[in-house]
Structure formats: structure tokens, C-alpha cells
Write a structure and sequence with these properties.
single chain; binds pyridoxal-5'-phosphate; 2 domains; seven-stranded mixed beta sheet; alpha/beta; Aspartate Aminotransferase, domain 1; three-stranded antiparallel beta sheet; Aspartate Aminotransferase, domain 2
Length: about 400
């Protein structure tokens, strides 16, 4: 096969299509039985007590900020090497963002980076931090949780890359080290829902707030009603039409149709993961001769990756090239690559808020990183083709 190899792509199979078709011909396209069924499957897969599915990972991040009650007088710590959505979520509720630096080789925020960001915040005393499990590798959550406990920080794990990963003996998503963990089921991630997100938590009150906020902010359980006269009839029973609005929320619901796809895909997570693991192992072997100009991002000791991306670090100057030239040469050979990520503190919107901020770890990671094609349906020959194209450009 000589088609274009993107840096990532979904794997949709016949039974996924059948699951979606069945949902499409059922009675409920929006909030039907498949939403709760998918949430139950997600709890089983992660070991969390509660799972709340929503319309995207970005919606999940926003819901997390709302559920923690962050607002304009609050500050959240976000590592600079992440997708912009992690930082934007804090801004949606008016909170300030303090960017943390990351390890120059793994791109992960460590406990020292978090401490340094807190010290920089001064009197602003952040209420929350959002560790990002970049590329699928988990942050050192035990150490980060210890820092968070000392400073009274609520932790929200951005696990969009890390479904199927582990920290010590804990599956990512069991929420052992944090208040909330969130996932994206965008097609390029571990499993695809089209657009979709999931939050997990072990806190029932937080889960109830998340559910209310994803559905316009509406309170539908009689125990929560305030307007007793309107809510209940003379014999004390809740009126069947009644709902209440304590505060406006959003329509961040996930449809029954997409939850059918999510649940079907979730059943394949282990199989997808083991193929990703095998591809990574093959890349490791085939890329070894390109060291020291190119080497894979080093693996952390405290957990197992969810293998979202296969990033390498390249010394472009030593290879006598630039990242742009390499990406264009690879694209001409039908090999797609991507940069994850441009440090968010360098984006004009955030730069304007902290013009002098320097994060050398984030810069060093960004200067060298490149994500190679990596997804379950890649063949071993595809992997060889990628490595051959890299070698041709870097060693010539
Ligand atoms: C994909 C992603 C998001 C956003 O998820 P969407 O479902 O695309 O909204 C947030 N953070 C990280 C790290 C991501 O990779």
C-alpha cells in the first residue's frame, strides 16, 4: 500500500457501523439508553465511580471548570505544552491561567514545574491545576498530588492522550490522584466517537453538577427543587413537567448515536493498544540507527503510556535541515507528521497576558518534537516506509 500515512487516524470496523445504524433506527437519537450504557462501560473500563459523557473533550474541560466552581477571581495552572483547549477552559469561566514549564525531553509537567508556577502566581494562589498526560505518557501523579495537597489545589487530569494508560497500579481515569479526569474521543485519539468527551470522578456531587451543567443547567431531581409551591402538588408529589434553573448551563450533551459508536469502540481499546504497543516497539528498533540526531521521546518510569502518539526528538541543526524542510520532504513521500504542540504561552492571546514569561523546558521540547504516523491499522511495512523516508532526509 502506498497511500498517504497521516500522523493518526481512527479505526472504524463493520460492527461499529452496525452499532451506529441500530442507534439511528431506534426511538431516541439524543438522550436514550446508549448514553447511560456507554457511561457504565466507561466506569468499568477505568474503575471510576462516575462517568459523564459530553459533546467533546473541550466541553469536558469547560464542565470541569464549572463543576469546581472556578470563576474570574480564580487562577488555574496549565502546562504550556498542550492543546490550546486545556488553557482556554479556564478562560471560559473567566479564570486566569498560569503556565507551567515541562520536562524538555518528555514534555510532561512535573512536581517541580508545578511548584515553580505556584511561586510565580504570588498572591493569586491558584485553585486548580490541569496536568496533561502528553503523548499518552502519564504525569508523575503521586508527586503532583502531593504538591496539590500542600497548596489546596484541585487537580483535573487532561487524559485526552492517555485512555488505556496507567500510573503505578492505577488505570488513568480511576481518579485516584485527582478530582476529575477528562478524555476526548475525537477520531485521532485512542477510540473514536466523532466528537465526544468523557469526565470521570469518584465524587457524586461533582458528577451531579457536571450532569446539570451539560443539560442547560437544569435541575430535574425533586430533592434539588427550591420553588416548592410550583414544584409539588398538594399531596407532596413532584409535578411531572417541572424543572428548575439554578443557574444557566450549556447544551453539551452527547447523542445516543455517537454513544453507540463510543461503546462499540471502547470494547476494542485493548486490541488497539496492543497494536500501538507493537508499532512503537518496531519504531524503537528501526529508528535506533538514527541516534543521536533522532531519538524517541524517553519513557517515564512511573506508569504506562496510552500510546496516543509516537513523537521523536530531532536535532535539526545537526542534521543540516529544518523541521519545515523535513515535514515537506516527508509529505512528498506521503508520510504525514505533526508538531504536538506549539507552547500555548507563545500564542498571541496568552502572550499578551504574560509578555515576559520564559519556559525553557517547553521551548526545548517544542524545538525538537515531531509526531510520526501512528495508529492501529498501520502495517509493519508502513512503519519501515516512514523510517526509510526519515533516514533518507536526515542522513543524506
Ligand atoms: C484533543 C485534546 C483536547 C480537546 O478535545 P476535543 O474533543 O477535540 O475537544 C484537549 N486536550 C488535549 C491534550 C487534547 O489532545
Amino acid at each position: 500500500m502506498n497511500g498517504f500515512l497521516p500522523y493518526g487516524r481512527q479505526t472504524i470496523e463493520e460492527d461499529d457501523i452496525a452499532a451506529v445504524t441500530a442507534a439511528l433506527t431506534s426511538d431516541m437519537l439524543t438522550t436514550g439508553p446508549r448514553v447511560a450504557a456507554f457511561e457504565a462501560a466507561f466506569m468499568a473500563a477505568t474503575g471510576a465511580d462516575q462517568a459523564v459523557v459530553c459533546s467533546s473533550g473541550t466541553a469536558a474541560l469547560h464542565l470541569a471548570m464549572l463543576a469546581l466552581g472556578l470563576g474570574p477571581s480564580d487562577t488555574a495552572v496549565v502546562p504550556s505544552v498542550t492543546f490550546v483547549a486545556t488553557a482556554n477552559a479556564a478562560r471560559y469561566v473567566g479564570a486566569q491561567v498560569i503556565f507551567a514549564d515541562v520536562d524538555p525531553d518528555t514534555g510532561l509537567m512535573g512536581p517541580d514545574h508545578l511548584e515553580a508556577a505556584l511561586a510565580r502566581a504570588g498572591d493569586a494562589q491558584p485553585r486548580a491545576a490541569l496536568p496533561v498526560h502528553l503523548n499518552g505518557q502519564p504525569c508523575d501523579m503521586a508527586a503532583i498530588a502531593a504538591v496539590a495537597a500542600r497548596h489546596g489545589l484541585a487537580l483535573v487530569e487532561d487524559a485526552c492522550h492517555a485512555l488505556g494508560g496507567r500510573v503505578a497500579n492505577h488505570p488513568v481515569g480511576d481518579v485516584h490522584f485527582s478530582a476529575l479526569t477528562m478524555f476526548s474521543l475525537h477520531p485521532v485519539k485512542a477510540i473514536a466517537m466523532g466528537e465526544g468527551g468523557v469526565l470521570t470522578t469518584n465524587d457524586r456531587a461533582l458528577a451531579a453538577t457536571l450532569r446539570r451543567q451539560r443539560n442547560h443547567g437544569l435541575e430535574r431531581s425533586p430533592e434539588g427543587f427550591v420553588n416548592v409551591e410550583m414544584a409539588f402538588d398538594a399531596d407532596g408529589r413532584a409535578n411531572p413537567w417541572y424543572y428548575e434553573l439554578p443557574a444557566p448551563g450549556f447544551n453539551y450533551r452527547a447523542s445516543d448515536v455517537l454513544c453507540a459508536l463510543g461503546q462499540s469502540q471502547l470494547g476494542k481499546l485493548d486490541r488497539f493498544l496492543s497494536r500501538r504497543r507493537a508499532i512503537a516497539a518496531l519504531y524503537d528498533v528501526l529508528l535506533a540507527p538514527l541516534a543521536p540526531v533522532l531519538r524517541p521521546v524517553p519513557r517515564v518510569a512511573w506508569g504506562e503510556s496510552g500510546w496516543h502518539l509516537y513523537p521523536v526528538l530531532i536535532n535539526f541543526a545537526a542534521a543540516g535541515t529544518t523541521r519545515g524542510a523535513l515535514m515537506r520532504a516527508l509529505a512528498a513521500k506521503k508520510v504525514g507528521t505533526q508538531v504536538h504542540y506549539i507552547p500555548v504561552h507563545r500564542q498571541p492571546y496568552y502572550r499578551a497576558m504574560a509578555p515576559d514569561l520564559e519556559l525553557p523546558g517547553a521551548e526545548a521540547y517544542y524545538a525538537r518534537c515531531l509526531s510520526l504516523p501512528f495508529y492501529p491499522t498501520m502495517t509493519d511495512d508502513d512503519v519501515r516506509r516512514v523510517v526509510a523516508a526519515l533516514a533518507r532526509h536526515l542522513l543524506s
